[in-house]
Write a structure and sequence with these properties.
This protein is an alpha/beta fold. It contains nine helices and nine strands. It has a five-stranded parallel β-sheet with strand order 2-7-1-8-9, sandwiched between helices. Strands 3-6 form a two-stranded antiparallel sheet. The longest helix is centred in the C-terminal third of the chain and has 18 residues. This is Phosphoribulokinase/uridine kinase domain-containing protein. It comes from Hyphomonas chukchiensis.
Length: 266
């Protein structure tokens, strides 16, 4: 796909592509793309990498810790870490190493990148990892919390929701903030630019996540069983504090696209 095929892009992908092209014009770039769950990041990223020659895309979700590592975290820090996604559940060192290898690679090199099986809740064996060609012109890394700032006072704040209420001593939040202030900030330092997709609010994100689950399970709109709806409603609460922090602008400087509840750019 080239720039003349823009009509085939979604409005969100088109808006992001315009921002990305401005960054890529400045030379080889590492661009982090942040957006809440269900907003359409993966679809937009696929369109952007097709439209920009020499671009590759990585996803933060591919770099989760192994299940055994996360279960150890749940045992040693707080049981809420059984749920993947929050800061501390990613292998940030592996992502930084992968980025460094891609940036330094020659055109003939092939770099394996991790893959995560969400159905099995486990990282796939290395023999099954996809392989990317070397010397990319632009490296996109997409994830729901890319660029978010740390707030070391957060563990002392009142719980935002029922999930945070289970973190009575603040250990779950304290570990997340320490990770954001350390390993994740060093990851953010590797970016040349940040692109943000800003949702109308956290309530909208919940609706998007419900739609995403319907698509994943292949059910009609509004057809999620009540038990699964309850699961999604609880699951999304693990992300509320940092999603609202991002939407409030507590993040690395960058370019942004605001979307409405239909995911259309404003």
């Amino acid at each position: 796909m080239d720039r003349q095929d823009a009509s085939r892009l979604t409005p969100l992908a088109e808006a992001l592509l315009a921002l990305a092209e401005a960054e890529v014009a400045r030379g080889a770039r590492v661009i982090f793309v942040a957006g809440p769950q269900g907003v359409g990041k993966s679809t937009a990223m696929a369109a952007m990498t097709s439209a920009i020659p020499g671009s590759v895309a990585l996803g933060l979700d591919a770099f989760y810790l192994t299940r055994n590592e996360r279960m150890a975290l749940a045992r040693d820090v707080h049981p809420l870490f059984e749920t993947r996604g929050p800061p501390g559940t990613h292998d940030v060192a592996l992502l930084r190493d992968t980025l460094a290898r891609l940036k330094a690679s020659g055109a003939e090199e092939r770099i394996p990148v991790p893959a995560f099986d969400k159905a099995e809740d486990e990282r796939r064996p290395e023999a099954e990892w996809p392989v990317l060609a070397g010397a990319p012109r632009v490296i996109f890394v997409e994830g729901w919390m890319m660029g978010v700032a740390a707030d070391l006072s957060a563990p002392e704040a009142a719980p935002l929701n029922a999930v945070e209420a289970e973190d009575e001593a603040g250990a779950w939040r304290a570990y997340q903030e320490a990770q954001l202030a350390g390993p994740y900030q060093r990851l953010w330092d590797m970016a040349d630019a940040f692109l943000y997709i800003d949702a109308p609010g956290f309530d909208t994100v919940l609706g998007w996540r419900m739609q995403q689950e319907e698509t994943t399970l292949g059910v009609a709109p509004g057809g999620l069983p009540p038990a699964r709806q309850a699961w999604v409603s609880r699951f999304i609460l693990h992300y509320q504090r940092l999603t609202e922090r991002l939407l409030a602008g507590e993040r690395r400087p960058g370019l942004s696209v605001a979307v409405d509840r239909f995911r259309q750019p404003k």
